[in-house]
User: What shape does this take?
Amino acid sequence: MDRYNGILPVIKERGLVSHDLIYRLRRILGQQKVGHTGTLDPMASGLLLICLGRATKLTQFLSDWDKWYRAEITLGWVSDTLDAAGHIEKGGDVPVLTPDDLRTVLTRFTGSITQTVPMYSAVKVDGRELYKYARQGQTMETPSRRVEIKSLTVLSYDAPRLTIDIRCSKGTYIRTLADDIGKEIGCGAHLSALERLAVGPFEAARALTLGDVDAHHRDGTLSTFVRTIETVLEFPLVVIADPVAATIRNGGVPGVGDVVSRRGRIETGQLFSLADQRGEILAIGRATCDLAAPAAGTPNDFFSYVRVLV
Assistant: This one.
């Protein structure tokens, strides 16, 4: 049985691969069920949300939160990977830029924008990751995606280095944003440093380093830093009578008559959490009918399983 179950905010140092961080945590904690909700490139540092125990089954549901980054963009120098990890060469001359000039440029990238997925990414085209094509010198037509840039704030500008704070939706490529800003200014640019400061309700300022994790694990206090599944999931909640809830472990499917209470409006197609009467979340379900105000003819089978956690 896993000692830890829940979400642990951890700091990834620059240069460390996210998978290597997971490997080290498994060794420190002595448990195999350790994962994360969203990778950080090796050159990036900052907050990585670690899923422990039962929470490893929830990574797909914990990736939708907005992100907060601090990025250093070097103008006038371009990279084949769009960041400091690639081959960097001289771009165009950096023009004189006033604070108003910078704000004007950044305004053009605020709101709902379309980004082109970079070649050096794990997105698959024709069943193969794009970075594998790039490493062989092949150029592919990469997909586009809509993302939301909530805000872009200039923190400092000491030519050619521009430091900005970015609050954005999931799926935003900060490397692409840096490249696009350089193109808009006319001199090219690349992402030279990146730190993730927050993911949803979690902040890097309250996260633990690997050394912290090791120390708290050894003295028995690490559990106080682990957020339980029940306090993290933001889905509506359906509480099932305990005798029936126990059958979920064996594939049982509760009916409408087994519902003790519910929290939040649940409509057809909506995801929700199923819990026992103690409040432990046992599964994620998708409603097959409207539970906001069930009518007399509501079918007994009111959902299908998306993920069973027990």
About this structure: Residues 6-65+201-229 form a domain with the Pseudouridine synthase fold (CATH 3.30.2350.10). The longest strand covers residues 144-158.
